Amino acid sequence: MFRRIVKFATPGVAIVSAGLFPFAPNEHDQVDHESMQKMYADAPGDRQTGKERLYLMFSVDEFGRVSNEINSIYQAGFLGFLVGACYGGFISSRVAYMNFMERNQATAFKSSFEAKRKLQDQVTLTFAKGAFKWGWRLALFTTSYIGIQTVISVYRGKSSIYEYLVAGGVTGAMYKFNMGLRGMTSGGLVGLSFGGIAGLLSLAILRATGTTMEEVRFWQYKWQDNRDQAIRDSIAKQSAGEADPLLEGHHEKFGTANLDLDKVIAGSEETTKEVEVKVAAVASKPEEPAKK
């Protein structure tokens, strides 16, 4: 009887325990580390130096695309410009609206359309000025912060809190450059604190998801490489099915035999060596005295 009760009560206990303790391990949380290690084996990893990683970061591939790190810096700068433009535009347009209403309370306009048109022109112009004023500043701040952090992380080959601290301190000091040494010091300290907070949040999120920044970059390169390989395969498949008139004319004139460049290079090297041997033999012979 007790065994039957336990048998029927076990699923209910499992459901209740899953509701109370949702982070309990199960078979779905098991990861095949062997297959992941095989994929990680394709990555250069520590076999590259810091300079080589920076060179790859600032290089362009065969399709004219920048690296994922540079692309992330571009995206951060654009997002910073967008947020700064929206913030500056909305704040400035609100101030312009309030000033227009206060200054033109006793102004006699010809019609309500003229008043609305002047108000719209004033608000639009002020919105553009405020958007540009805040947009480029926040874009420069965001780009410099993410750029410095990414460069240091790529050079070291790993991510830690130090990159965020250095990036925040340097960016804050640069932002207050026009205020002198004291302003740069205060800006650097404020940037250092905010950079540390941002770094702790980023690392905490990565730790909670069970991944690292190196793995994120690896998967980005892996997905891009798979996409490029799929494009190459599709182009090769398409070109194989289509007839090329230039190639057909070449085959009709010279035949379908393929020219092996390795053999051509090897033959040219052998010919060069033979010529060098003959020249050395001629140079080593003693000169015969001229007959009178």
Automatic annotation (TrEMBL):
It comes from the Eukaryota. The chain crosses the membrane at residues 5-24, 73-97, 134-155, 189-208. InterPro entries: TIMMDC1. Its main location: membrane. It is a multi-pass membrane protein. GO terms for biological process: mitochondrial respiratory chain complex I assembly. Keywords: Membrane, Transmembrane, Transmembrane helix. It is found in: Membrane. One of its GO terms (cellular component) is membrane. Belongs to the Tim17/Tim22/Tim23 family. This is Complex I assembly factor TIMMDC1, mitochondrial. It comes from Culex pipiens. The lineage of its organism: Eukaryota, Metazoa, Ecdysozoa, Arthropoda, Hexapoda.
